[in-house]
UniProtKB/TrEMBL annotation:
It comes from the Eukaryota. This is Cytosol aminopeptidase. GO terms for molecular function: manganese ion binding; metalloaminopeptidase activity. Residues 349-356 form the Cytosol aminopeptidase domain. It is found in: Cytoplasm. It comes from Myripristis murdjan. CDD domains: Peptidase_M17. Its EC number is 3.4.11.1, 3.4.11.5, 3.4.13.23. Its main location: cytoplasm. Belongs to the peptidase M17 family. One of its GO terms (cellular component) is cytoplasm. Homohexamer. Cytosolic metallopeptidase that catalyzes the removal of unsubstituted N-terminal hydrophobic amino acids from various peptides. The presence of Zn(2+) ions is essential for the peptidase activity, and the association with other cofactors can modulate the substrate spectificity of the enzyme. For instance, in the presence of Mn(2+), it displays a specific Cys-Gly hydrolyzing activity of Cys-Gly-S-conjugates. Involved in the metabolism of glutathione and in the degradation of glutathione S-conjugates, which may play a role in the control of the cell redox status. It catalyses: Release of N-terminal proline from a peptide; S-benzyl-L-cysteinylglycine + H2O = S-benzyl-L-cysteine + glycine; Release of an N-terminal amino acid, Xaa-|-Yaa-, in which Xaa is preferably Leu, but may be other amino acids including Pro although not Arg or Lys, and Yaa may be Pro. Amino acid amides and methyl esters are also readily hydrolyzed, but rates on arylamides are exceedingly low; L-cysteinylglycine + H2O = L-cysteine + glycine.
Amino acid sequence: HLEQWFPACGPRTTQGDSSGSGLVLGVYEKEGEDGGFHLTEAAAGFDSSLSGKLSEMLKISGPTPKKGKSRMFYGIHKDFPCVAVVGLGTNTAGVCGAENWDTCKENIREAMSAGCRQLQDLEVSRVEVDSCGDAQSAAEGAVLGLFQYDQLKSKKKTKVTTLLHGSGDLAGWEKGVLYGEGQNLARLLMEAPANHITPSVFADTIEEKLAPHTDRVTVHKRPQAWIEEQQMGAFLSVSKGSEEPPVFLELHYKGCPDQTQAPLLLVGKGITFDSGGISLKPSSGMDAMRADMGGAATVCASIVTAAALKLPINIIGLAPLCENMPSGKANKPGDVVRAKNGKTIQVDNTDAEGRLILADALCYAHSFKPRAIVNAATLTGAMDVALGSAATGVFTNSDWLWEQLQKASVVTGDRVWRMPLFQHYTRQVTDSQLADLNNIGKYSRSGGACTAAAFLKEFVTATHWAHLDIAGVMANKDEIPYLRKGMSGRPTRTLVEFAAGLAQQG
């Protein structure tokens, strides 16, 4: 039944015969020359094969396409009934300090996404894509741009096989396909309705996706009895309000030949539906809380991707999975629960549940003597208010870890931004009437993302720890042009790039 709701993210893509295909090519604007343009290497080669016909048609069909805008040509080549030429902006773009990303890579992703989508709308099922000098970014744009969650609709989008055009960097292309498919897996999990993606189905789906890598990956789906044995009282207190049993998903990826290498620990919040519990959320927009397991989705999808890439690094992924529901068994405001490390927590707001389940997972994470711990969670609406969808908020006790994450995000374009971990916020969660900690800050509406991070810090002793609050980047409306509207799967590619960077360091 899993394949019905969670099919493969897309066909594997390789170079091949171009018969009957669509084609996406890139074109740059010439700076300071109105209407001037120059073609990418692949587009110039294609133009040469047509004796300059493509250039001629571009000149007579209007201004050069602006960045992300396309011009469609029909019947100009026997093997490509439809050719989309898409604007890449200027050829001078590169890493931009003001934007904290590589503008050239972002322009390529946007352009190839736009061209592929236009051909998909024309029901072209096979598309060759210009590498634009960066095959990985082109592949990411194509794979991410074509994704749409329509598994439960009668009428579905045309399934498109994407291929690298010409004899470009095939290794870079295949790497980009895996990066894109990893993010699409997270999007599938986040977008699926909560009655289809229960804690147990989530765990089964990830196990299925990791099945081709059993030589390197071990999957443990820990049941409620194990959670009780581990004395994870904070996690159990959240799960007990639901009829769905909790699952503690534990993934071990052993990619490093040296098995004594300390593992990277990735921890993801896995609330498969968040009603708010007794502190019930407003009904408007509550359906989006099917994606409150975005932390678990991105963490698990990044490990699936790391395994597919065969990254030479050891990674352990932890995902406490449950629903947060109101019932006679649910947490009540004012209840006091005990976390795995013995600290007591006064639960004054049952809708601040993500930090409760993460508290126990973070305690458990330390038992593996990790190289670093990174947790991801759609934790606070306050994070969305602070940064919107521009970047993931990062709270960390380690300058080194921040630098690694920031460096990775410049490459992926899926940005991060450092936030404060001041004692100012710690005092607001440790000032509790009944227990060691309160699960909401003393001034509940002030600095909510910061007090949530301060709460998590009370369960961390590791030297290198980072908390990624991904609430603001959970969904996409139209901000990221190469993603359609819906759940974003961010920041999966940044987590993968971060892990790849650590793997290179050895």
